[in-house]
Specification:
Low-confidence stretches: none
Shape: globular
Largest sheet: 5 strands, mixed
Order of helices and strands: EHEEEEHEEEEH
Number of domains: 2
CATH architecture of the largest domain: Roll
Distance between the termini: 57 Å
Helix content: 10-25%
CATH topology of the largest domain: 2,3-Dihydroxybiphenyl 1,2-Dioxygenase, domain 1
CATH class of the largest domain: Alpha Beta
Number of helices: 3
Length: about 170
């Protein structure tokens, strides 16, 4: 029996410490230049380092890297077929609604179609695909004081259509 699987039970350990967070994501890509064109050229990430071995490290704001891109096991490869496991999407958090509006403008200007655009109550999100067909979520979080809550104080998240025209109007030029 798999030691990580428990039938219909939730782990009884104490919750993870509140300061823990996802540090960075490494994506296998088929073509490094094409991936850099999307993540740096369209979304605006900065190239921090490129390795001759077929990898690049990119960031927002000068951090060592938020995304690693590599062709070590995937050069010239194809996305996994539907019905297989793997990464659903990488979520990129923008600090403000105006910054998310700028990201939407960049995506539209590059002719990249959206898979969806949702208001979740706690956040607003745009969904699209990178050149390797990896799912990408671009989002911003509303302040916690604005999150929808039930009478007992628990979250009342939802999924509604996001008004992308209203979002674009928030873009600061």
């Amino acid at each position: 029996m798999n030691p990580f699987v428990r039938e219909a039970t939730v782990a009884q350990n104490a919750p993870i410490i509140g300061g823990a967070r996802i540090g960075h994501v490494h994506l296998k890509v088929a073509d490094l230049d094409r991936a850099l064109g999307f993540y740096c050229g369209v979304l605006g990430f900065e190239l921090m380092q490129r390795l001759e071995s077929g990898a690049a490290f990119i960031s927002a704001g000068g951090y060592h890297h938020h995304l690693g891109l590599n062709t070590w096991e995937s050069k010239g490869g194809h996305p996994p077929p539907p019905g297989t496991t793997g990464l659903f999407h990488t979520a990129i958090l923008y600090p403000t609604r105006a910054a998310l509006a700028d990201a939407l403008h960049r995506v539209i200007a590059a002719g990249i179609p959206l898979d969806g655009a949702s208001d979740h109550g706690v956040s607003e999100a745009l969904y699209l695909r990178d050149p390797d067909d990896n799912g990408v979520e671009l989002y911003w979080d509303r302040p916690q004081a604005q999150w929808p809550r039930k009478a007992d104080g628990s979250l009342a998240m939802f999924t509604r259509r996001l008004d992308v025209d209203d979002l674009l109007a928030q873009r600061v030029v």
